[in-house]
Amino acid sequence: MTSIIVAFFVSLAVATAVTPLVLRVAARRGLYDKPDGRKIHSRLIPRLGGIAIVLGFFAPVTGLLVVEAGMRVQLTQNETQLIGLFAGGALIALLGLWDDLRGTNARQKFAVQIVVAVLMWFLDYRIENLSSPFGTPFELGALAFPVTLLWFVGVMNAVNLIDGLDGLAGGVGFISVTTLMVMALMDANVLAAFMCAALAGALGGFLFYNFNPARIFMGDTGSLFLGFVLAAFSISTSSKGSTALALTVPLLVLTLPLLDTMLAIGRRVRARRNIFSADQEHIHHRLLKAGFSHRGAVLTLYAVTATLAAVAIVMRATSQPIVGVVLLASALVVFLLLRFIAGWRRAQRVPPPPEVAAVAGERLSKEA
Question: Of 96, 154, 193, 306, which is least packed with CB atoms within 10 Å of its CB?
Answer without folding.
Answer: 306
